[in-house]
DNA sequence: CTATGATCATGA
DNA sequence: TCATGATCATAG
Protein backbone atom coordinates (compact mmCIF):
# COMPACT_ATOMS: atom_id res chain seq x y z
CA UNK A 1 0.00 0.00 0.00
CA UNK A 2 1.66 3.21 -1.14
CA UNK A 3 -0.73 6.06 -1.71
CA UNK A 4 -3.42 3.50 -2.25
CA UNK A 5 -5.26 4.44 0.88
CA UNK A 6 -7.63 6.43 -1.25
CA UNK A 7 -9.58 5.90 -4.42
CA UNK A 8 -7.52 6.29 -7.57
CA UNK A 9 -10.30 8.15 -9.35
CA UNK A 10 -10.15 11.88 -9.76
CA UNK A 11 -11.00 12.81 -6.19
CA UNK A 12 -9.24 11.62 -3.04
CA UNK A 13 -12.14 11.60 -0.70
CA UNK A 14 -13.04 8.13 0.41
CA UNK A 15 -10.75 5.63 2.10
CA UNK A 16 -10.79 2.23 0.43
CA UNK A 17 -13.16 -0.03 2.39
CA UNK A 18 -11.29 -2.90 3.97
CA UNK A 19 -14.27 -5.00 4.86
CA UNK A 20 -17.69 -5.60 3.45
CA UNK A 21 -19.16 -4.02 6.55
CA UNK A 22 -17.23 -0.81 5.92
CA UNK A 23 -18.46 -0.75 2.38
CA UNK A 24 -22.06 -1.28 3.45
CA UNK A 25 -21.80 1.50 6.02
CA UNK A 26 -20.63 3.79 3.30
CA UNK A 27 -23.55 2.70 1.12
CA UNK A 28 -25.99 3.49 3.89
CA UNK A 29 -24.79 7.05 3.80
CA UNK A 30 -25.01 7.24 0.03
CA UNK A 31 -28.48 5.75 -0.31
CA UNK A 32 -31.23 8.32 -0.13
CA UNK A 33 -29.07 11.13 -1.41
CA UNK A 34 -29.44 12.71 -4.80
CA UNK A 35 -26.69 12.53 -7.38
CA UNK A 36 -26.32 16.28 -7.02
CA UNK A 37 -25.73 16.03 -3.26
CA UNK A 38 -23.17 13.29 -3.70
CA UNK A 39 -21.41 15.15 -6.49
CA UNK A 40 -21.22 18.25 -4.32
CA UNK A 41 -19.47 16.35 -1.55
CA UNK A 42 -16.97 15.01 -4.07
CA UNK A 43 -16.51 18.37 -5.75
CA UNK A 44 -17.64 16.83 -8.97
CA UNK A 45 -19.71 18.76 -11.46
CA UNK A 46 -23.01 17.34 -12.63
CA UNK A 47 -23.29 17.20 -16.43
CA UNK A 48 -26.40 18.44 -18.21
CA UNK A 49 -27.32 14.92 -19.17
CA UNK A 50 -25.60 11.60 -19.71
CA UNK A 51 -25.32 11.68 -23.48
CA UNK A 52 -21.67 12.67 -23.37
CA UNK A 53 -21.12 11.24 -19.89
CA UNK A 54 -22.59 7.77 -19.95
CA UNK A 55 -20.37 6.42 -17.23
CA UNK A 56 -20.76 9.38 -14.91
CA UNK A 57 -23.15 7.82 -12.42
CA UNK A 58 -20.95 4.77 -12.11
CA UNK A 59 -17.82 6.83 -11.56
CA UNK A 60 -19.62 9.00 -9.03
CA UNK A 61 -20.53 5.95 -6.96
CA UNK A 62 -17.07 4.43 -7.29
CA UNK A 63 -15.66 7.65 -5.99
CA UNK A 64 -18.01 7.97 -3.10
CA UNK A 65 -17.59 4.38 -2.04
CA UNK A 66 -13.84 4.22 -2.50
CA UNK A 67 -13.49 1.67 -5.29
CA UNK A 68 -9.87 0.95 -6.03
CA UNK A 69 -9.63 -1.30 -9.06
CA UNK A 70 -9.36 1.56 -11.51
CA UNK A 71 -9.96 0.20 -14.97
CA UNK A 72 -8.33 -3.11 -14.22
CA UNK A 73 -10.16 -6.25 -15.22
CA UNK A 74 -10.77 -6.93 -11.55
CA UNK A 75 -13.59 -6.44 -9.05
CA UNK A 76 -14.03 -2.78 -8.15
CA UNK A 77 -13.24 -3.42 -4.51
CA UNK A 78 -10.10 -5.49 -4.80
CA UNK A 79 -9.56 -6.19 -1.12
CA UNK A 80 -13.00 -7.60 -0.53
CA UNK A 81 -13.78 -8.98 -3.99
CA UNK A 82 -16.93 -7.00 -4.64
CA UNK A 83 -18.03 -5.67 -8.01
CA UNK A 84 -20.05 -2.44 -8.07
CA UNK A 85 -22.87 -2.05 -10.55
CA UNK A 86 -25.21 0.89 -10.69
CA UNK A 87 -28.63 -0.09 -11.97
CA UNK A 88 -30.69 2.56 -13.77
CA UNK A 89 -34.32 2.21 -12.74
CA UNK A 90 -37.43 3.71 -14.30
CA UNK A 91 -40.51 5.13 -12.60
CA UNK A 92 -41.86 1.62 -12.04
CA UNK A 93 -38.74 0.36 -10.27
CA UNK A 94 -37.67 -1.70 -13.23
CA UNK A 95 -34.19 -1.75 -14.76
CA UNK A 96 -34.02 0.61 -17.68
CA UNK A 97 -30.95 -0.86 -19.33
CA UNK A 98 -29.04 -4.08 -19.59
CA UNK A 99 -25.94 -4.45 -17.44
CA UNK A 100 -22.50 -4.65 -18.97
CA UNK A 101 -20.39 -7.45 -17.52
CA UNK A 102 -17.13 -7.77 -19.46
CA UNK A 103 -15.73 -7.98 -22.94
CA UNK A 104 -16.16 -10.98 -25.18
CA UNK A 105 -12.90 -12.93 -25.38
CA UNK A 106 -11.36 -12.39 -28.75
CA UNK A 107 -7.97 -14.05 -28.55
CA UNK A 108 -7.51 -15.75 -25.21
CA UNK A 109 -10.10 -18.45 -25.55
CA UNK A 110 -7.83 -21.10 -24.13
CA UNK A 111 -8.91 -23.45 -21.38
CA UNK A 112 -12.33 -22.05 -20.96
CA UNK A 113 -14.71 -23.23 -18.29
CA UNK A 114 -17.53 -21.55 -16.50
CA UNK A 115 -15.80 -22.03 -13.17
CA UNK A 116 -12.80 -20.02 -14.32
CA UNK A 117 -14.66 -17.58 -16.50
CA UNK A 118 -14.42 -13.87 -16.37
CA UNK A 119 -18.21 -13.60 -16.28
CA UNK A 120 -18.56 -15.86 -13.25
CA UNK A 121 -15.77 -14.07 -11.44
CA UNK A 122 -17.26 -10.66 -12.01
CA UNK A 123 -20.72 -11.75 -10.99
CA UNK A 124 -19.77 -13.80 -7.95
CA UNK A 125 -20.38 -10.86 -5.59
CA UNK A 126 -22.05 -7.71 -6.84
CA UNK A 127 -23.00 -4.57 -4.99
CA UNK A 128 -26.08 -3.38 -6.85
CA UNK A 129 -26.85 0.30 -6.50
CA UNK A 130 -30.17 1.27 -8.11
CA UNK A 131 -30.32 4.87 -9.29
CA UNK A 132 -33.31 6.75 -10.62
CA UNK A 133 -32.92 7.13 -14.35
CA UNK A 134 -36.18 8.50 -15.71
CA UNK A 135 -35.30 11.05 -18.36
CA UNK A 136 -37.72 13.60 -17.00
CA UNK A 137 -35.84 13.87 -13.71
CA UNK A 138 -32.88 16.24 -13.90
CA UNK A 139 -29.68 14.32 -13.35
CA UNK A 140 -28.75 16.16 -10.15
CA UNK A 141 -32.17 15.43 -8.63
CA UNK A 142 -32.12 11.70 -9.16
CA UNK A 143 -32.01 9.62 -6.01
CA UNK A 144 -29.80 6.68 -5.19
CA UNK A 145 -32.05 3.89 -3.97
CA UNK A 146 -31.41 1.00 -1.64
CA UNK A 147 -28.39 -1.10 -2.48
CA UNK A 148 -27.85 -4.76 -1.82
CA UNK A 149 -25.06 -7.26 -2.12
CA UNK A 150 -25.86 -10.15 -4.38
CA UNK A 151 -24.40 -13.59 -4.75
CA UNK A 152 -25.96 -15.74 -7.46
CA UNK A 153 -28.27 -18.43 -6.13
CA UNK A 154 -27.78 -21.92 -7.45
CA UNK A 155 -30.59 -21.45 -9.94
CA UNK A 156 -29.34 -18.06 -11.04
CA UNK A 157 -25.87 -19.38 -11.60
CA UNK A 158 -27.20 -22.30 -13.60
CA UNK A 159 -29.03 -19.93 -15.89
CA UNK A 160 -25.96 -17.82 -16.41
CA UNK A 161 -23.75 -20.81 -16.95
CA UNK A 162 -26.11 -22.24 -19.53
CA UNK A 163 -26.13 -19.02 -21.52
CA UNK A 164 -22.41 -18.55 -21.17
CA UNK A 165 -21.58 -22.05 -22.37
CA UNK A 166 -23.87 -21.69 -25.34
CA UNK A 167 -22.24 -18.42 -26.31
CA UNK A 168 -18.75 -19.70 -25.71
CA UNK A 169 -19.45 -22.70 -27.88
CA UNK A 170 -20.12 -20.31 -30.73
CA UNK A 171 -16.89 -18.52 -30.03
CA UNK A 172 -14.89 -21.70 -29.90
CA UNK A 173 -16.44 -22.70 -33.20
CA UNK A 174 -15.05 -19.52 -34.69
CA UNK A 175 -18.36 -17.69 -34.99
CA UNK A 176 -17.68 -14.50 -33.06
CA UNK A 177 -18.90 -12.40 -35.95
CA UNK A 178 -22.18 -14.27 -36.22
CA UNK A 179 -23.26 -13.95 -32.58
CA UNK A 180 -26.21 -11.60 -32.22
CA UNK A 181 -27.85 -10.21 -29.13
CA UNK A 182 -30.86 -12.48 -29.64
CA UNK A 183 -28.90 -15.41 -28.29
CA UNK A 184 -28.82 -16.12 -24.57
CA UNK A 185 -31.85 -16.04 -22.32
CA UNK A 186 -30.36 -13.88 -19.55
CA UNK A 187 -26.77 -13.30 -20.58
CA UNK A 188 -26.13 -12.14 -24.08
CA UNK A 189 -23.48 -10.59 -26.31
CA UNK A 190 -23.76 -7.17 -27.97
CA UNK A 191 -21.39 -4.66 -29.54
CA UNK A 192 -19.13 -2.81 -27.14
CA UNK A 193 -17.08 -0.22 -28.96
CA UNK A 194 -16.58 3.46 -29.52
CA UNK A 195 -18.52 3.08 -32.76
CA UNK A 196 -19.26 0.60 -35.50
CA UNK A 197 -16.09 1.52 -37.37
CA UNK A 198 -13.91 0.10 -34.63
CA UNK A 199 -12.85 -3.37 -35.67
CA UNK A 200 -10.64 -6.04 -34.21
CA UNK A 201 -9.38 -9.28 -35.63
CA UNK A 202 -11.72 -12.09 -34.73
CA UNK A 203 -13.30 -15.18 -36.23
CA UNK A 204 -16.14 -15.53 -38.65
CA UNK A 205 -17.83 -18.40 -40.50
CA UNK A 206 -16.00 -20.97 -38.44
CA UNK A 207 -12.37 -20.07 -37.93
CA UNK A 208 -12.05 -17.63 -40.78
CA UNK A 209 -10.11 -14.61 -39.62
CA UNK A 210 -12.15 -11.46 -40.04
CA UNK A 211 -12.44 -7.93 -38.74
CA UNK A 212 -15.35 -7.72 -36.35
CA UNK A 213 -16.76 -5.16 -33.97
CA UNK A 214 -15.66 -5.68 -30.36
CA UNK A 215 -18.44 -7.17 -28.27
CA UNK A 216 -19.24 -7.67 -24.63
CA UNK A 217 -21.36 -9.76 -22.28
CA UNK A 218 -24.44 -8.09 -20.83
CA UNK A 219 -27.15 -9.13 -18.38
CA UNK A 220 -30.63 -8.62 -19.77
CA UNK A 221 -33.19 -6.70 -17.73
CA UNK A 222 -35.15 -9.96 -17.55
CA UNK A 223 -32.39 -11.11 -15.20
CA UNK A 224 -31.75 -7.96 -13.19
CA UNK A 225 -35.45 -7.12 -12.94
CA UNK A 226 -36.29 -10.01 -10.61
CA UNK A 227 -33.15 -9.31 -8.56
CA UNK A 228 -34.29 -5.76 -8.03
CA UNK A 229 -37.82 -6.86 -7.25
CA UNK A 230 -36.63 -9.33 -4.63
CA UNK A 231 -34.47 -6.69 -3.02
CA UNK A 232 -37.47 -4.41 -2.68
CA UNK A 233 -39.50 -7.03 -0.88
CA UNK A 234 -36.90 -8.23 1.57
C1' DC B 1 -5.66 -0.65 -28.29
C1' DT B 2 -8.21 -2.60 -24.44
C1' DA B 3 -10.14 -2.09 -20.41
C1' DT B 4 -13.28 0.59 -17.35
C1' DG B 5 -18.01 3.11 -16.59
C1' DA B 6 -22.45 2.69 -19.12
C1' DT B 7 -26.68 4.93 -21.96
C1' DC B 8 -28.37 6.45 -26.41
C1' DA B 9 -31.27 6.19 -30.47
C1' DT B 10 -33.82 3.97 -33.74
C1' DG B 11 -36.54 0.43 -36.10
C1' DA B 12 -39.90 -3.09 -35.59
C1' DT C 1 -42.72 0.35 -26.03
C1' DC C 2 -38.40 -1.95 -25.98
C1' DA C 3 -34.52 -4.66 -27.45
C1' DT C 4 -30.75 -4.35 -30.62
C1' DG C 5 -27.09 -2.29 -32.48
C1' DA C 6 -24.47 1.95 -31.97
C1' DT C 7 -22.19 5.13 -29.30
C1' DC C 8 -19.53 8.36 -25.69
C1' DA C 9 -15.71 9.46 -22.23
C1' DT C 10 -11.42 8.25 -20.17
C1' DA C 11 -7.28 5.83 -18.12
C1' DG C 12 -3.10 3.25 -18.79
Describe what you observe in this structure.
The structure is a single chain. The chain has 6 helices and 8 strands, in the order H-H-H-E-E-H-E-E-H-E-E-E-E-H. Helix content is 28%, strand content 18%. The strands form 3 sheets. Strands 1-3-4 form a 3-stranded mixed β-sheet, sandwiched between helices. It has a 3-stranded antiparallel β-sheet with strand order 2-8-5. It is globular, with a radius of gyration of 18 Å. With 234 residues, the chain is of the alpha+beta class. It has one domain: ECO RV Endonuclease, Chain A (3-Layer(aba) Sandwich), CATH 3.40.600. The termini are far apart. It binds a DNA duplex (12 and 12 nucleotides) through helix 3, strand 2 and strand 5.
Amino acid sequence: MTEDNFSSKQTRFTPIPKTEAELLNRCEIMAGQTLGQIAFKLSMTVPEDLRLHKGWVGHLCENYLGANAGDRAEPDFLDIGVELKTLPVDAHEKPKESTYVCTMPIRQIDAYSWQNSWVKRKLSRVLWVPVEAARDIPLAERYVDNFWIWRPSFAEECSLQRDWEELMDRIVLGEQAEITSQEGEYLHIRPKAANSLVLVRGMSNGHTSAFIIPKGFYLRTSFTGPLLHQSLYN
